[in-house]
Amino acid sequence: MLKTRVIPTLLRNAQGLVKGKSFDSWRRVGTVLPAIKVYNMREVDELILLDINATTENRNQIYSEIEELTSQSFVPLTIGGGINNLDQIKNLLLSGADKVCINTSAYYKPEIIKKASETFGSQCIIISVDVKKRKNGYLECYSHSGSKQTGKEVSKHCKEMQSFGAGEILITSIAHDGMMKGYDLELITLISKSVTIPVIASGGAGNYKHMSSAIKSGANSVAAASMFHYTEQTPNEAKKYLKSNGIPIRNSIVT
């Protein structure tokens, strides 16, 4: 059985770190480097850093900046945002990223996923999947930071990404994002039964019980942002809670 990872998610734009609700990320919550340093001390298992405007603004990551950030991160760091070719992936990995997270290009240039997994290895390719439920119950994937409909049904898309060599799925309910009322457990169950690669639950965590429920619904790991930004809850305490509920934890816990 895979051990559970607790993964803080950092969302950034040109001004710094941001957070909001249902992908309307308008509220400033700090800057990137200090946040990474804080999480280093809080014994997180991994970090995910997503540039939410890179795709819509059609720009690359600044590799010198990524290199500075990765040099200060003592835990694996996943970088996402604006990735649409192999050179970008190569440059991010050379800049110190442990993994890359791809969303929009997986719909419009899916061949990149296959080429990237063959070139760099599946273990460093995470597919981010953002989902909204239509009134008729259809679970549709959205691209461009949750702003554009793709028409793709979520389980079909995740299966396709697995077949192309993706190593993990980061699944996020747009409606639950930032609400802190719990993950979309129905969605997590569906995706965990649709693929055999690890599933990271995202969108809606407000307390440790929510994380436990996500794992029991089939997620291999849990990601959270608002919970760690706006409350006194910590990744270390989350791991203690999960361990006390019989869930295997990835790293040692600080007592």
Mean pLDDT reading: 94
**Structural class by SSE content:** alpha/beta
Q: Distance between termini?
A: 25 Å
Under the CATH scheme, which class?
Alpha Beta
- For the CA atoms, what is the radius of gyration? 17 Å
In total, the number of strands is 12
CATH topology: TIM Barrel
Weakly predicted, low-confidence segments = none
Note the overall shape: globular
Count of helical segments?
Answer: 10
- For the biggest β-sheet, the strand order reads 1-4-5-6-7-10-11-12
Helix content: 25-40%
Question: Could you characterize the architecture of this molecule?
Answer:
The structure is a single chain. The chain has 255 residues and is α/β, with parallel strands linked by helices. The protein has a single domain, classed as Aldolase class I (TIM Barrel). The chain contains ten helices and twelve strands. The protein has an eight-stranded parallel β-barrel with strand order 1-4-5-6-7-10-11-12, surrounded by seven helices. Helix 8 (208-216) packs across helix 10 (235-244). The longest helix has 10 residues, at 32-41.
